[in-house]
Write a structure and sequence with these properties.
Blueprint lengths: L1 E5 L4 H12 L3 E6 L2 H14 L5 E5 H7 L2 E4 L3 H15 L3 E4 L20 H9 L4 E4 L19 E6 L2 H13 L3 E4 L6 H18 L12
Parallel strand pairs: 1-2, 1-4, 2-3, 4-5, 5-6, 7-8
Antiparallel strand pairs: 6-7
Amino acid sequence: MKIAIIGGTGPEGSGLGFRWAAQGHEVIIGSRKAERGEEVAAELLSKQPDFAISGTDNNTAVAACDVAILSVPYWAQKSTLESLKTELAGKLLITVVAPTGEKKSRVLKLESGLSAAEEAQQQLGDATRVVAAFQNIGAHHLLDLDHELDCDVLVCGQKAVDKDVAMQLIADAGLRGVNAGGLSNASVVEGMTSLLIFINIKNKVRDAGIRITGI
């Protein structure tokens, strides 16, 4: 697939992109400024020059992609999606956004009463399909392709075919995906990010994750 990572210059977006490129996907690192996207793409290519990775601005990246990944802080979600609504029409958007409080280890309850993923779906309308995934993974080892990521990924979305795409990308990143129901369940998944941050701090670790047992 041709994957555009919106806000892909951060550790999670670029790390996931690196892992997807290792599996043969074409990855486009997007940023508000094309120069920054190009810079991060060059950094990744310095590690693996034969990977299909490029960088540009978010709009150009999304216009060229098969599937888009939203990897921005929650406070930037609304303005980012407003600028990309036309390019995202007819496409699948997988959001990794997880709102956190002023102290990241405290769950942030959104004024809308919805999850960030549901807000994204409302903002984009029916022209774009939104799936939530990757909220609960740590980014510290994503660039190390030999590191086994000890974490499951919960996937929330309305259509099975869209969640299947997310499941494939999860597997390609070296993780196990678990179908967690409709998009309304994403608020629970997003809130678990703050819980994991607290657990990390309390136990002086960096990559506490979740495992679903019994399946």
